[in-house]
Each structure stands twice: as structure tokens, then as C-alpha cells.
Amino acid sequence: MLLLAIDTSGKQGGISLARCEGASCSILENSPIAGGTFSAQLIPQVAEALNKQQLKAADLRGLVVISGPGSFTGLRVGLAAAKGLAEALHLPIVSLSLLELMACYGPEGHVLAVLDAGRGECYCGEYDLPEQRPALIREFLCSRAELVEFANAKHVTIVACEESILGFLSDNGISATGIRRPESSSAVLPGFRKLLAGETIDVEQLDANYIRRSDAEIFSKPKLDAQKRTS
User: Fold this and answer.
1) Domains: count for the chain
2) What span, in angstroms and rounded, lies between the C-alpha atoms of 172 and 170?
3) Residue partners of 11: CB distance under 8 A and separation at least 6
4) 125 and 61 together in one domain
5) Region label for 92, one of left (φ > 0), alpha (ψ between -120 and 50) or beta (otherwise)
6) What is the pLDDT at residue 44?
7) What is the pTM of this model?
8) CB under 8 A, 24+ apart: contacts of 37-43
9) Is the same domain home to 86 and 186?
């Protein structure tokens, strides 16, 4: 089964072409894509990866997309490309949270994956991890102070991929496991497993996992409230 994985959630992104059979996947092509060029480079990189392997888009049997949290603009580009390919080629889509992929690097048990959300806040994904298959408890946004309170109150293994978070936790006496940020190739095997389990999503339902609302939504709400009060 030929799969294409797409990641446009971070400052850098990429696509991975993989052949999956049985219980394993082999990466055929990895193509990094520089931040700021997703809209111009994503589809050409897919075409180039297929050409290198003497394959066609029609040979694809599924799509795996990292749906966030992350860059609002980047996620929109990646999801739009996935939707277009899925509709044109009638492909199933697996949507994966970046936090879920991070949690896969943790030990079995109670795991908290943490990403820097800026503005003194963190994206958090709380999972139970039996046999490397994360079971979602919840994903949420919290302040750094709230993260410290949570870590002190719960028996949980924290995984993080950013020095800003690892350093902050260390300064507050909290241990965390440092990992590499997951990328498109990291999504292939978990995505394949979900595809086999039938855990796919319709094109109409595919949406970005922002966790935090966009600035446009945040800053427009007070204006809307003010208009309601004066109307």
C-alpha cells in the first residue's frame, strides 16, 4: 500500500512517500519543505517524489496528514492539499495530532505531550499509552504556570521537543523527556495503523486541530459583543 504523509504544522514541513505492508512501512522518499513555501512547493514536491520512484498519483492508496496544533496558515495549506488529492483520487484520509505523535515517544503509562504555544501558553496532549498506542484523554491549552501545577499534581511523564519548554520545566524542578519534533515520516506508521483500523476521516470533516482560536476570532469577539450591546 502506497501512502503519502503531509506535515505543514511547523516552521518547516515536508512530505513522505512510503510503502506499507503487513505491520511495517518503508520510507521511499522524504522531501523537506521550507516554511513560507508550503503553498508553492507542496504539490510539486509530491509530484517529484512520485516521479523519482516511477510512480503516479493514481498509485496512492491513502493520505496521512498532521492536523496540528501549529501554524494556522501552514495547516490550512496542508489540509487543502490533502482534501484536493483525496477528492481527485478517491483516497481515505487519516488525521493525526502532532501531540499524539509526540506521545508515542513516551513510555507506557500516563503521558503529557507539550508544545510551546507562545504568549506564555502551552499546547498539551494528555494520553494513556498502552503498548505504544496512545489513547486520548484530552488536549488543551494552558499557561506555563498551570503546566507546572499540573506536573506537580499528577504522576505523568512529560515529553517535549522544544528547548523553550524543556528549559522552563527544568528551571521549575520538573523532569521531562526531550524528543525530536515529529515530522511527516513520523506519521507514516501510526497513520497506516489507523488506516487499517478504519480510523479515517471524510474530506468534509477534515479540519485543523488548532486548540487555540485564531487572532481574528479572538480579537473580533469583543467587537461583536460591543455591537450586540449597542444594537
Assistant:
1) 2
2) 5
3) 35, 71
4) no
5) beta
6) 96
7) 0.89
8) 38/8, 38/13, 38/73, 38/74, 38/77, 38/78, 39/77, 42/6, 42/8, 42/13, 42/15, 42/77, 42/78, 42/81, 43/81
9) yes
